[in-house]
Design a protein that fits this description.
The chain has a domain of about 60 residues. About 45% of the residues lie in helices and about 5% in strands. The protein contains three helices and two strands; from the N terminus they run H-E-E-H-H. Strands 1-2 form a two-stranded antiparallel sheet. The longest helix has 21 residues.
């Protein structure tokens, strides 16, 4: 039986939760940057050092192991965390707080005189 069409187009199912993140291996697209950085590091270090075992280049093995390890670590870290928490944490560690309330010892008291 043929579906009825509206203006020549077949009806498509509507995704009701369109704004929820799509997960791949339990990670959102923002977290894959950290996984890829780990993979690049795992490939680059053995390549630069020219390491191999039994004729197998270690850069291939280390890159795969480090990617799997970083996906596992990111899944453990992501449990009940807000989106982009790791990016904000790293940004805070390097830049410090930029907008915050003053502490009581930082308030200039000369205006009270």
């Amino acid at each position: 039986m043929k579906q009825q069409t509206i203006n020549g187009l077949a009806p498509r199912p509507v995704r009701s939760l369109i704004y929820l993140p799509i997960l791949r291996f339990g990670l959102t697209d923002q977290d894959w940057m950290f996984v890829l950085v780990g993979g690049v590091i795992g490939y680059t270090i053995p390549y630069v050092l020219g390491l191999s075992i039994w004729g197998i280049p270690l850069e291939i093995v280390c890159a795969v192991i480090l990617i799997i390890f970083s996906v596992l670590i990111m899944n453990i870290l992501r449990v009940k965390k807000r989106p982009l928490f790791l990016k904000h944490l790293i940004q805070y560690k390097f830049q410090g707080q930029s907008n915050r309330r003053r502490k009581t010892e930082e308030i200039a008291k000369d205006w009270l005189l």
